[in-house]
Amino acid sequence: MVNQNNSTSDRNKSRASDDKNLMSIAQYLKVAQLGHKRSIPPLEQWQPKHCGKMDLRIKANGEWWHEGQLIRRKALLDLFSRVLWKESGKFYLKTPVEQIEIEVEDEPLLVNEVEQVEIEQKKYLQLTTTNQDVIIVDQEHLIFMREFEGEVRPYVHVRFGINALIQRAAFFHLIEYGELFENAQGDTILSLTSGDLHLQLGT
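^ that's the sequence the OP posted. Answer follows.
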C-alpha cells in the first residue's frame, strides 16, 4: 500500500527543490547581467554538475509551464532562455554550478520577426525571436525545414545545437524576401539569399 502522506511529502519536496533551482538561476542571471540584456553567457565553457530533472516543460507553441502552471512573466522567460543548453539530445538550464534537465516538446525558441539588413554592402536576412535573440542567417545559422507531428515546419539554428521555430506569420514575411518556383518534380521551392549564402527550401 502506498503511503499517501509520504507521496504528498515527496511531491512537495520536489516542488520546493524546483522552485529553489529556478530562483537560483534567476538570481545568478540578474547578478551576471552586465547591461546588455541579450548577452549570452559562455555556456560552452562551463562544466557544472548535473542536478537531475526539473518539472519544467516548453511546449511546441513556445509556452513555458512549471509544475502545471504557465509562466507568464516575459522578463523571467527572457532570462531563462539565455541559459538554454542542449546536450546528447536533451535540453537543460545551465549555470556555472548546476545543469538541470527540462522537457522541450519541439524547440524552445520562436522567431516572430523577419527583416532584411545591409552589412558591408550585402543584404542579409535577420530573424528575431520572442526572447529578443537576433540571428543573422549565414552558414552557421541556417534556415531548414523539418517535420513535427506530421507537419513540415521552418526552423533556424540559433546556438549550442538549439533551433527556433519560425512562426507562420514570420515565415510568410520571409517568403516576401525570396522567390518561389517549382522544381522538376512539381514541388514548390523557396529560394532565399542572405549575404553570399543561397538556400532552397521545400515548402
